[in-house]
Design brief:
The structure is a single chain. The chain is of the alpha+beta class. The chain contains five helices and 19 strands. It is elongated and about 75 Å long. It starts with a helix and ends with a strand.
Length: 384
């Protein structure tokens, strides 16, 4: 009886409490099955997870990379194929000028190089290898590596160059205000130059202007259009010069020029400098006939350089050999393309010019390449 009374008392209290709660909250309380409450809690938890910092970052990059392929199809015909194959001939050119504070200057350039090889492309990425047919038996220890990636939104250039021993002295200005000695061809192995750099360029009008149409043949520009450009870059340069070999080269000049001595401003063993730069420019694609395109792009950059140097084997941190300054450099691109979406052919060129100035001496390095190519696209995309 005590157990039954206890149960009845508990049931009565529970019912009274339920009635009290229902009386106070009759306007707000509703009945929800347990499964429904669990589902809502799960949805709320999932919503919180979707709004955390990592999901927001993920959504940002998803939208960002989607812009790589978003275009105005009235201006740009998208790529209809997934893959491409082409053969390319690459011809590289370089000139290097070193000037002293007294006005003496020497211009060097190596032998021209001619390369040929296959390239394979997937969407907006082209990778390949070219063989140096101009130095099959002797590479002169020259090393070159260039990669350029072009999308509608950005372009990326990476380059690594290590010159060899095939420089020639082409021009000398013996003294300040002196008459230049031109058309020289004096072999010189005492100069070694190394350049490593990367440039990132943003294309503002990327929905109507196509860099890939001009330089990677992955789209077709249908209407003429241009775009402002902005970019950032990093380069590292190293210069090794043997002044004794340079004097020996000067001694080979015809006697009519008299005795020419190497200026003391060029008596250094090695100079290295790094350059961080901001650039701005403009590019334009001219559609002058059906399936034909002529492209030009120019960008000027202002760079902040820091350097170290060695004067005849001794490292110096003096003002002349350890300093920072602003300099102006330039990059130009040119191209002409025929592309009917299946087959393409054309030529393109890219040129870089870098300047380095200090009180004791200055340098100017200009290098670039001209490419001739022919290829085809294959592996048609779905819906094209």
């Amino acid at each position: 009886m005590r157990i039954v009374a206890t149960i009845l008392l508990y049931m009565t209290m529970t019912a009274a409490y339920a009635v009290s709660v229902d009386t106070m909250r009759s306007d707000s309380l509703q009945y929800y099955p347990l499964d429904s409450l669990s589902a809502e809690a799960s949805v709320e938890s999932h919503s919180r997870r979707k709004n955390d910092i990592f999901h927001r970052i993920g959504r940002f990059f998803t939208r960002y990379f989607r812009d790589f392929n978003e275009t105005d199809t009235l201006y740009i015909e998208p790529q209809h194929f997934n893959y491409a194959f082409m053969m390319q001939n690459t011809n590289t050119y370089e000139t290097y000028r070193i000037s002293s504070k007294s006005g003496q200057s020497v211009s060097f350039s190596p032998d021209l190089t001619y390369r040929v090889g296959p390239y394979f492309g997937w969407r907006w990425i082209f990778l390949g290898y070219t063989f140096d047919i101009s130095h099959i038996s002797n590479s002169h220890n020259k090393k070159e590596f260039d990669v350029s990636l072009y999308s509608n939104l950005v372009s990326v250039d990476f380059y690594y160059r290590k010159t060899g021993t095939d420089y020639h002295i082409r021009r000398i200005v013996p003294y300040i205000n002196g008459s230049p000695i031109r058309n020289l061809d004096i072999p010189f192995s005492g100069l070694n130059v190394g350049i490593t750099g990367i440039n990132l360029t943003y294309i503002f009008n990327h929905k109507r202007f196509s860099y890939p149409a001009a330089f990677s043949q992955s789209t077709v520009q249908r209407l003429s259009c241009g775009s402002p450009l902005a970019g950032i870059g990093y380069t590292r340069h190293s210069i090794d010069l043997d002044p004794e070999q340079l004097q020996e080269a000067f001694d080979q000049l015809p006697a009519v020029y008299g005795k020419v001595n190497v200026d003391s401003g060029l008596h250094f063993d090695r100079v290295s400098y790094t350059n961080f730069s901001l650039s701005g420019g403009y590019a334009y694609n001219l559609v002058f006939a059906r399936n034909w395109l002529a492209a030009i792009s120019m960008a000027l950059s202002v760079g902040y350089k820091s350097s170290t140097g060695e004067l005849m084997g001794n490292k110096h941190t003096e003002r002349d050999f350890s300093f920072r300054n602003l300099t102006f450099d330039a990059t130009g691109r040119f191209g002409i393309v025929w592309n009917n979406t299946r087959w393409f052919a054309g030529m393109s060129a890219i040129m870089h010019s870098y300047n380095y100035r200090k009180r004791q001496f200055s340098t100017n390095n200009t290098f670039g390449s001209i490419n001739f190519y022919v290829g085809l696209n294959f592996g048609r995309k779905r819906g094209h």
